[in-house]
Description:
Structural class: alpha/beta
Helix content: 55-70%
Number of helices: 21
CATH topology of the largest domain: Rossmann fold
Number of strands: 8
Shape: flat
Order of helices and strands: HHHHEHEHEHEHEHEHEEHHHHHHHHHHH
CATH architecture of the largest domain: 3-Layer(aba) Sandwich
Strand content: 5-15%
Radius of gyration: 26 Å
CATH superfamily of the largest domain: P-loop containing nucleotide triphosphate hydrolases
Amino acid sequence: MVLEKLGSTLKEGIKKISNAIFVDKKLIDGIVKDIQKSLIEADVNIELVLALSQKIKKLAYDETIKGIDKKEQLIKLIHDEISLLLGKKGELKLPKQASIMFLGLYGAGKTTTIAKLGLYYAKRGRKVALLGLDTQRPAAMDQLEQLSEKIKLPAFIDKKEKDPIKIINNYEKELKKYDLILIDTAGRDGLNKDLIKEIEKLNKKLKPDFRILVMPADVGQTAKTQAEEFQKALSIDGVIITRMDGTSKAGGALTACTETNAPVFFIGVGEQIHEIETFDPEKFIQRLLGMGDLATLLEHVKSATDEKQQQRIEDRMKEGKFTLLDLYSQLEQMNKMGSMDKLIGMIPGMSAAKVPKNLLEKQESKMKHWKSSISSMTEEEIENPEILEKQTSRIQRIAKGSGTTTTEIRELLKQYKMLKEMMGMQSGLAEGKIDQKMMQKMARKFRGKVKV
């Protein structure tokens, strides 16, 4: 998880305060020291760290506050002050017709972020188009084209034209058919005069509703300089921080944006195309403290799920036509949602359960093997898995072709049979054909057996 070490330190500190009989100097000094270390490792500005430390100590040493009240106030102070470091929630409220121009230096992840955001809004009913105006980076147009094909959204590009204004003029009429235009612009190694001049020119021509700066989390405290420079030169409306999952410096980027009053609208939390989240400091803190975030989990599900495919599977289940192909589709949907430990961290209470990492990895590995096994089957075997049990030589062939074992394939078939039976019982229940006695029998049969 993002800033996992900081989260662990905060949880441990709050636990120590809650369990302590007395809140004494030794306890507080130890907790403050741990929090300082974690914040500094997360690249938070040292002055902000010291200010937070002083507030905690001042409250802890206040003799007028006694016992339980002091514990509660200390826990609330730590929670509130970390929330303040991360700033207020910056909500991107789009009008019915909107355009967003994305700014940033080389390597910030602008083009990928545009594709992620395009998919995010398309899943929420927007008619989205991508406009490529990065004529500086040789592969920029190709990348935008490839990403647009992946997410099935139109990309308006011209690989031969070097003047972005001419590209705008060429597509001006067609772009009016869309209610959200996401605009990719050129970057540079630094915010120099050429970049400012080019973006000012585009800004004047396009008159976008929003100008958003894209920055990678691994720039740490340098984010403050970037945000200030872009804010001064071009009056940005907010920030998207990328690569939040791949660095321990993310605290520096987040707090730097707070210091410059640049709201963070979204954060990129993984390499997959759907792995982008709205940034809500309060929910972010809840996840750091192991309290989960169901709203973000539901966002992930919505972004990763193919609604038409899901509806098709549901219809087939109602008809009692659940095959291995449908099971494969479900595994694909789960895979798109990201790693299991990331998802479990969003479920309230599950973080505290401390599910062993090796158990999660084992389950992920099992699902990958099942997918490989299904990919190695013939169409007949996928539609009628029962023939595999009658002709065991088929199981040996599939195991050899998929790099799995016959034991794994038999386990897959066992799980498939149980799920199919459950679907049948569910259908019977919906039609009123299952009585209470049958329900009890069903509960006994499946208790603890379904492992997917």
